[in-house]
Amino acid sequence: MTQETWLAQFVERSMQWGMGSGIRVVLIGIGMVLLLTIVRQALARVRRLLEGALPTPAQRQRAETLTQVLRDVARVFIVAVGTMMILSEIGIDLKPLLAAAGLGGLAIGFGAQSLVKDVISGFFILLEDSIAVGDVVEIAGVSGLVEEVKLRSIRLRDVSGSVHVVPNGIVDRVKNMTKGFSFYVFDVGVAYKEDVDRVMAVLVEIADELRADPSYAEDILEPLEMLGVDRFDDSAVIIRCRIKTMPIKQWRVGREMNRRIKKTFDAKGIEIPFPHRTLYWGEGQAPPAIVQTGA
Predict the structure, then answer these.
(1) Which pTM was predicted?
(2) Would you report the helix, strand and coil content of the chain in percent, each value rounded to 5?
(3) Smallest Cα–Cα separation from 151: which of 170, 125, 132, 128?
(4) Which of 138, 144, 217, 285 could potentially form a cystine with 156 if both were Cys, beta carbons 3.0 to 4.6 Å apart?
(5) Which CATH number fits domain 3-111: 1.50.10.10, 3.40.30.10, 1.10.287.1260, 1.50.10.150?
(6) Which residues make Cβ contacts (< 8 Å) with residue 243, sequence separation at least 6?
(7) pLDDT tens digits, 59-71
């Protein structure tokens, strides 16, 4: 075969490939670019709509994180499928590549299963909005203020200032103490000789005065809810009540309420009992002596 004949056959085959598979490769490439552009613009539009509708920076950050994750997943899927279609049109056998990719993915999956679990769990935590920045939560035996929520981990700071980083993969239960609103529950113990109806009326008066205080009025959402006599302890009758507050304000309101309860009970002569211990010396020549001391 002469050089001219080989060159003519090469040109002819190239033209045939270009008229068939070449056009399909170009169309696949154009389709990939169009799909990537559509996905990027659609997610950007969704993010702008969410940023305008969501009131807090934490919620806007959550929306931005979710849209970025969806954008990356869509990008990887489109590029992977488009690349395989192009390789198939070029004439490359995809079976060995798919088998190698499957084995590699399996090995990576076994090696990074905890990382994958963290990311998947973090995605659903963000999607369900069970935890947000600024919440006070208890997760994985750790409680504190949420400072950051990522796809892989959650960062908490406890009351002593210590920072805890909890991987999302081990979060199997969430206790959110500041979601929407909060309650502070009071278990007030009084002596058995006290009139419980009078004590409950005094507690309501204290709560009403606290609610009328301008320093606490915005933090309290509803009047004191009196739940009644809860139980009988060894040395006290326990009266339970609770007050509804703004999120994360329940401890501030509860501490002030406790301070006022102590001062008011002292002023009105209502006894707050404490445990006692009785020491008894056995009978002998002298009469028995009974001494009572505070425990």
Answers:
(1) 0.62
(2) 55, 20, 25
(3) 125
(4) 144
(5) 1.10.287.1260
(6) 183, 184, 186, 207, 220, 222, 223, 224, 225, 250, 253, 254, 257
(7) 666 677 677 777 7
